[in-house]
Amino acid sequence: MKQVFSPLKIILSLLLFLFIGIPFIALLLSSVATGWQWPVLFPESYSFRAWEYVLFGSSRTWQSIGTSLLIAVIVTVINVLLAVPAANALVRFQFKGKWFAEAILFAPIIIPPFVAVMGIHLTFLRLGLTETILGVVLAHLSPTLPYMVRAVMISYNTLSVDWENQARMLGAGPFLRFYYVVLPHLLPGIAAGASLSILISLSQYLITFIIGSGQVVTLPILLFPFISGGDPAVASAYSLLFAGMAILALLAMDAVLKKYYQTKNPSVLKVKGVKR
Amino acid sequence: MWQKSKPYLLLLPATGAIVLLFFGGLFDGMLKSLGYFPAIGERQLHLTAYTELLSSDSFWESLSLTLRVAAISSLLAGILGGMLAIALFMMNQSTKAKESRLWQRLFQLPLTIPHLVAGYVIVLLFMQSGLFSKLLATVGIIDQITDFPVLVNDPFGWGIILAYTWKEVPFVLLMVYPVLARIRDSWRDVSRVYGAGNLSFIREIALPIMMPSWIIAVFIVFVFTFSAFEIPFLLGVTYPSMLPVYSFQLYTSGTLADRPEALAVNIILALMTIVLGLIAYYFSKRWNVTKGWQ
Fold it and tell me: Is A263 exposed, middle or buried (0-12, 13-18, 19+ CB in 10 A)?
């Protein structure tokens, strides 16, 4: 059996190298190369000039990372607050016009959000929301919220009302019930939604550019002039930093979640298993 | 009374936000595309922007480029992603669960890469003095920089196609693989009893099972490519440009007169994605895509 599939493994390894390996090697080499002339496959000399510039030379890098993360975190917190009650209603209640509510909430997945942002731009301008973090946060809500609702809905689907009823019988009020029964169960869904929400918010360029008008400098805004014809070494270093930031945000979310289950609430996993 | 209105109250904040920020923006844009600018005293609604747009060559060129790029890149991503899913599925039958999860995660890495970075990766690899050109020159296949085809900032859109294919292969994999993973080991054994080799197993069992979700995945990639901005902005040419870029060019061109046209492009784009989205939704419900079969 093993023998039959080992050629497949070799092909897959080659594909992995071609798809994932080469792009990263290219970015890495380009970020440390000096004078990488055309016919030579590997750079002749290396220096950390671009990295020094990106990490220490310009304070704008750290400011832009801070702005990006600040916006992503505010957007995600608002998303959680909006999505949990909405998902609750969509999963646990039967009511008239449910399909309509779903259509409204999930529309920004299909219709490109920049259409709405360009449309609302002049109104934002009049309200003084352009060039502000608040304006950019508001603009980032519609591309991210549908994914959060979706993720929390999946968690609600596996949460039986019985658990809450049991807590009610033991005398827990609505807040205690939510905190000790509902929230722990929703957490994986919230974390998955938060990862998506952070990732989408971090990588927005056009929406931030329109509403921020170049004054709200997130990492993609700072990066763009470099990658469209600037210094290739600096552009590569910024690209790696940008990609790394997105991947790190995901890994951090993963780690937080794991830690939560290990320390705080070991019983939750068992509870989940019963219902599924 | 409370029980009846409770779901509506729970939904109010989220739907309110979307209605206000998203549909409000769409409506605002639509009014302005019809020439309604109270700030400069324009209150008449008219279709000038639309008629001018539909009679201009640049709009139609832009539309055909958009359709071409979206069709080619979604097909390529679909074919590669589908093959990858089958290959991983076949391999995972003989490997441990932990190892197969690692493989999947590695192949899904491009999903987390921001679009701008994906675009820049394509620049580094495929421009005329890029890494692949250097590689070909080193092994002696090409002699001059100009022997390497123009694949970045080219009028056909190859650079955009390459970038989207790279970015969306993992998406197709993500959509299709879970369906394949539901094939039981016993089915494989039964097929072997009836004399089916690997190829006929793939053809007779794996392919039909993954088909519905594969089609929907390709369709979603198509709609997405249709309406995304960053990659064509970076890898395209000024003329013709893909529809979202075309709209952005009109919007930022400086003259106020072009703005209704830009917003008209947006409304047309939105209508097209709505129609395409409804088609995808209809078939995904009908074919029961997430499950694959009943």
Answer: exposed
Closest Cα partner for B165 from B173, B154, B176?
A: B173
How far A266 CA sits from the closest chain B CA (Å)?
Answer: 23
Across the interface, do A23 and B125 touch by the CB < 8 Å criterion?
yes
Give B49's contacts in chain A (Cβ within 8 Å): none
* Angle between helix A98-110 and B2-18 (nearest 10): 20
Q: Please give the distance of CA A111 from its chain centroid, rounded to a whole number.
A: 19
Query: B282 in contact with A at a CB cutoff of 8 Å?
Result: no
Q: What is the residue whose two structure tokens read 């609600």? A: A156
Of B87, B94, B116, the CB nearest to A220: B116
How far apart CA A241 and CA A253 sit, in angstroms, is 18
B27 interaction partners in chain A (CB closer than 8 Å):
119
Q: What confidence tier does A209 reach under pLDDT thresholds 50, 70, 90? A: very high
Q: Which residues of A fall within a CB distance of 8 Å from B103?
A: 12, 16
Is A243's CB within 8 Å of B117's CB? yes
- What CATH number belongs to A58-275? 1.10.3720.10
Q: Do A115 and B133 touch (CB under 8 A)?
A: no
Question: In angstroms, what separates the C-alpha of A108 from chain B's closest C-alpha?
Answer: 7
Question: Which distant-in-sequence residues (6+ apart) come within 8 Å of B111 by Cβ?
Answer: B167, B170, B171, B174
Between these two residues, A139 and B253, which has the higher pLDDT value? A139
Q: Which of B177, B160, B168 is nearest to B76 (CA)?
A: B168
Block mean pLDDT (10 aa), chain B, length 294: 81 94 93 81 80 88 93 95 89 76 84 90 89 85 84 89 93 87 78 80 84 88 88 88 91 79 91 88 74 51
What 3-state DSSP class applies to B191?
helix
Q: Are B129 and B145 in contact (CB under 8 A)?
A: yes
pTM (2 decimals)? 0.86
Residues of chain A with CATH 1.10.3720.10: 58-275
Contact A119 B26 (CB under 8 A): yes
Using a CB–CB cutoff of 8 Å, tell me whether B108 touches chain A.
no
Whole-angstrom Cα Rg for chain B: 24
CB A226 within 8 A of CB A238: yes
Residue A273 has what pLDDT?
42
